[in-house]
Known about the structure:
This protein has one domain (8-150). A two-stranded antiparallel ribbon has the order 1-2. With 173 residues, the protein is mainly alpha-helical. The radius of gyration is 23 Å and the shape is elongated. The protein is built from 7 helices and 2 strands; from the N terminus they run H-H-H-H-E-H-H-H-E.
Amino acid sequence: MDSHYGGFWxxxxxxxxxxxxxxxIGFTMLILGSVAFGLGFSPEEMAADPETLMELGAKVWAIxxxxxxxxxxxxxxxxxxxxxxxxxxxxxxxxVVRDTGEAISFGTAFLRWVGYLISFLPLCMGFLWAGVDRRxxxxxxxxxxxxxxxxxxVVEVEIPxxxxxxxxxxxxx
Length: 173
C-alpha cells in the first residue's frame, strides 16, 4: 500500500476534536436531563428533602453515563464504518483503512471501538503506542487490523503518457 501513515500528533488532535464534539453533546444532554428530571419537583420540595435531590442526581448521572457510553460507541462506529473518517479525522486529513488498504466495514469499526476501551485502560498506553510503532498503529488498530493513513501524503496514481503511434495509454480517449 503506497501511503504514509497518520502521525501520532495529528491523530491526537483528531481525537481531541471528536471528544470535544462528544463532550458538547454530552454536556447538553446532562443539562437537558437535569432540567427534565427536576420539573417534577418544586424548589420547596427539593430544599425540604435533600434525599430527593440526591436521588435525582444519581438517576440523572446514571442515565447520562449510559447514554454517553452508547453515543461514543455509535459515533466512532458510524463515522469510521461509513467513510473511515470521524469529523476530527476529516479535519486533519486522516482516514482509517484495513491494513490491506481496503475500506473498513461497520464490524471492523465496532471492533476498533472495542479496542479503544482496551487502549484506554492501562493509562492510555494503547493510544500512546501509535507514537512508537513503525506503522503508527495504536493497540485498537492492531486489534482491528487497521491503519490510519495521511490523505495529504497518499501517492497519486500517475496517468501514463499517450503514445502517438498506438493512441493507447490515455485514459480519457
